[in-house]
């Protein structure tokens, strides 16, 4: 199928916009590659330090003939998704030896769990941890000893941070290695019901804890389709996973075989051989467009609207909110995974998974097939799925028909005609809303504002019974410069209760929600943020606001608001505790949400 002209137009626009920055980036990468294998330039003393603790690999490293793979790991056992990585380095080293290569952990990067920090002060470090991850990975690779890289990371900021670093070292091949989702536990919709009952006092804390632990119950990625699993989808659509690697459960033979195959592939695509595939060639404008298409087709996380521009900038590519909006308008929603449906990612995988999705998008002409990937040339290898047959890893064609039409549907009969992400513009600024799971009668909300400067105050007002009529809840001073742009997902149960009571409710904020945002309309990432003097800082209780996701507008309708002086908030409470003081100077230099909300790009 020829590429859809709407997708081609967005790609061409991105290419034109990025021509200068992309050319400069590629020139830097070419000069780095021209220097040849970095290990050849180590002095004897340098090399002795580098190989001192490599044991049985030392002789091969000293001779300098075997491909040497650097491992950057986000292992810790605070994150269920990353706990399986504890054993990966030993397996990777053994797999490397089996194909005549060597491997070494270059360094570790921090990886925080948003599930632990949600609604707490630590969440104010969450977004900027992406940039810290990129910096840490840069330190790891500064040893300049490697012919290829393996990246062990899955969750919210971790993959974007690792991508920024991989692109910065774009002359090296890069293969991303997932660990897979935990098996299904308590259904996500049942967990959500208990959360809402707890918010109204109908469920005890013991009931809530039991439900949460039955849902998040073992090693592996959380099973809802939030940012972590959206990241995994992106890595396949962007050609940095082996095909079908994303959603195979941990601890299985297939998972281990895929990890070993990733090591072999990394060794095969270095500059030492004939199939050199540096990540700079993979991460071009077509790869990023494919990622955005996948995001819209599956109703993925709104966090990627922040992360993808930052990731792209590291490769010299400039994305804009309009690109997301135009792709969303062109791409039908063909998957429903919680919170956009009842299925979890294991059900998605069983219904056809990534192989079906890629095949369907190719059949619809919605993704670029003329791309470079770690698996080969073209995206069609990603329309296949891995199988372990008689102990051997093979790839077979994925199903061409959905095995469960309640989860996956063809582009000719989608769940919705568009991807469900809408750009909002108006006198309140620019932002986005995800409407793929918002009821149709809630796509336009016009109501008086209640203005808050932290989510705790919203919860207190709810507990006090202050929300008795239609309302647009404004939570401001939550942007990157104010407090690091935390997720406000803890407000979801409260707002959902109000909506279920029949009130017309919306959220407007310069903060984030999360990959798990759902049925309540939420205008998020509003920029300019309140701390930068945006219109949000001029609002007062009772101002009439209109959020219109059909027209793509976000406005205050009360006369005279724009002429008011912006409120200056007391942000002293954000300055200290839980490590926040370490980020104070960095917050002041953060870029706007529309540019990725970065402190380093």
TrEMBL record:
The keyword Iron applies. Catalyzes the dehydration of 6-phospho-D-gluconate to 2-dehydro-3-deoxy-6-phospho-D-gluconate. GO terms for cellular component: cytosol. It is an enzyme of class 4 (lyase). Belongs to the IlvD/Edd family. Residues 407-597 form the Dihydroxy-acid/6-phosphogluconate dehydratase C-terminal domain. Binds 1 [4Fe-4S] cluster. Its cofactor is [4Fe-4S] cluster. This is Phosphogluconate dehydratase. Residues 67-379 form the Dihydroxy-acid/6-phosphogluconate dehydratase N-terminal domain. Pathway: Carbohydrate metabolism; Entner-Doudoroff pathway. The gene is edd. Its EC number is 4.2.1.12. Pfam families: ILV_EDD_C (PF24877), ILVD_EDD_N (PF00920). Keywords: 4Fe-4S, Carbohydrate metabolism, Gluconate utilization, Iron, Iron-sulfur, Lyase, Metal-binding. [4Fe-4S] cluster binds at residues 155, 222. Gene3D superfamilies: IlvD/EDD C-terminal domain-like (3.50.30.80). One of its GO terms (biological process) is D-gluconate metabolic process. One of its GO terms (molecular function) is phosphogluconate dehydratase activity. It catalyses: 6-phospho-D-gluconate = 2-dehydro-3-deoxy-6-phospho-D-gluconate + H2O. InterPro entries: 6-phosphgluc_deHydtase (IPR004786), Dihydro-acid_dehy_C (IPR042096), DiOHA_6PGluconate_deHydtase_CS (IPR020558), ILV_EDD_C (IPR056740), ILV_EDD_N (IPR000581), IlvD/EDD_N (IPR037237).
């Amino acid at each position: 199928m020829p590429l859809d002209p709407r997708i081609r137009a967005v790609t061409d626009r991105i290419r034109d916009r990025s021509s200068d920055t992309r050319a400069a980036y590629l020139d830097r990468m070419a000069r780095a590659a021209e220097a040849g294998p970095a290990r050849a330039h180590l002095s004897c003393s340098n090399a002795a330090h580098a190989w001192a603790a490599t044991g049985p690999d030392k002789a091969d490293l000293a001779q300098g003939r075997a491909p040497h793979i650097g491992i950057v790991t986000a292992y810790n056992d605070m994150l269920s998704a990353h706990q399986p990585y504890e054993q990966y380095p030993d397996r990777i080293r053994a797999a490397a030896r089996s194909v005549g290569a060597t491997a070494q952990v270059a360094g570790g990067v921090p990886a925080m769990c948003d599930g632990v920090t949600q609604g707490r002060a630590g969440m104010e470090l969450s977004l900027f941890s992406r940039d810290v991850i990129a910096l840490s990975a840069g330190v790891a690779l500064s040893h300049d000893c490697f012919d290829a890289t393996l990246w062990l990371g899955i969750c919210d900021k971790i993959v974007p941070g690792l991508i920024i670093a991989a692109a910065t070292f774009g002359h090296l091949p890069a293969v991303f290695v997932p660990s897979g989702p935990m098996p299904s536990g308590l259904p996500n919709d049942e967990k959500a019901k208990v959360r809402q009952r707890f918010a109204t006092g109908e469920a005890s804390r013991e009931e809530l804890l039991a439900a949460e632990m039955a849902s998040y119950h073992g090693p592996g990625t959380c099973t809802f389709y939030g940012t972590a699993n959206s990241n995994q989808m992106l890595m396949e659509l962007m050609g940095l996973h082996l095909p079908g690697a994303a959603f195979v459960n941990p601890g299985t033979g297939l998972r281990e075989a895929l990890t070993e195959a990733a090591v072999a592939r990394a060794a095969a695509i270095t500059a030492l051989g004939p199939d050199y595939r540096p990540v700079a060639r993979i991460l071009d404008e077509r790869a990023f467009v494919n990622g955005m298409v996948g995001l819209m087709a599956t109703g993925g996380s709104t966090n990627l609207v922040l992360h993808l521009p930052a990731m792209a900038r590291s490769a010299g590519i400039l994305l804009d909110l309009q690109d997301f909006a135009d792709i969303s308008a062109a791409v039908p929603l063909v998957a429903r995974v919680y919170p956009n449906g009842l299925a979890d990612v294991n059900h998605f995988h069983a219904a056809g998974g990534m192989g079906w999705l890629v095949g369907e998008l190719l059949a619809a002409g919605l993704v670029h097939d003329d791309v470079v990937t770690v698996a080969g040339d073209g995206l069609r290898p990603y329309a296949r799925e891995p199988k372990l047959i008689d102990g051997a890893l093979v790839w077979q064609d994925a199903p061409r028909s959905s095995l469960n039409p309640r989860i996956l549907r063809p582009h000719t009969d989608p769940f919705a005609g568009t991807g469900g992400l809408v750009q909002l513009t108006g006198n309140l600024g620019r932002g986005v809303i995800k409407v793929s799971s918002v009821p149709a009668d809630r796509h336009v909300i016009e109501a008086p504002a209640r203005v808050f400067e932290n989510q705790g105050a919203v919860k207190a007002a709810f507990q006090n019974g202050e929300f008795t009529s239609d309302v647009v809840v404004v939570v401001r001073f939550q942007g990157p410069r104010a407090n690091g742009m935390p997720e406000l997902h803890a407000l979801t149960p409260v707002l959902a209760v109000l909506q279920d009571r029949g009130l017309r409710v919306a959220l407007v904020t310069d903060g984030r929600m999360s990959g798990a945002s759902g049925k309540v309309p939420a205008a998020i990432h509003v920029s300019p943020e309140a701390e930068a003097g945006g219109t949000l800082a001029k609002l007062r209780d009772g101002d009439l606001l209109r959020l219109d996701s059909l027209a793509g507008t976000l406005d205050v309708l009360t006369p005279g608001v724009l002429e008011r002086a912006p409120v200056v908030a007391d942000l002293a409470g954000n300055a200290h505790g839980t490590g926040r003081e370490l980020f104070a100077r960095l917050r002041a230099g953060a870029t706007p949400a529309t540019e990725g909300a970065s402190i380093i790009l």
